[in-house]
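Record passed on here:
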Amino acid sequence: MAKLYGEVNRILGLDKEHKTVIVGMGNIGKAITNYTYYYRIGFNIIGLFDASTRVIGSKVDNMVIQDVADLSEWCKEHEVEVGIICVNRENAQGVADAMIEGGIKGIWNFAPIDLDIPSDVALESVHLSDSLHTLSYKIASLKDANK
């Protein structure tokens, strides 16, 4: 069983750690920081960024939140592979562009917008409203089935 588990992890790319940054330290950004820190699922969060002067310089999980203006250069210096976007729709494309300029090759997007990225960058967008729509559909289906 351990051999199978190891092979599945290798196929999924979870047999190594991915240097990761999060941009947007609101509720979603903080929740992701805390989740991945404790569960160590292969994504090593090494940088936190935000645009708000209210949070820049403060800490989450003993990491200092940095200015998003420094994102591209910081990612190049630290060879970051994955970026997590937790900003609003209006700022998401700019953040994605800065991540790509910094050499990031994978983006996990929580902003409610479809990003325009090059084909050599992997993108996974999480649209939370889609999950709620799916749940609503399943509830309605259960009600219809019980009539």
Q: What stands out?
A: The longest strand covers residues 43-50. The longest helix spans residues 128-145. The chain has a mean pLDDT of 88. The radius of gyration is 18 Å.
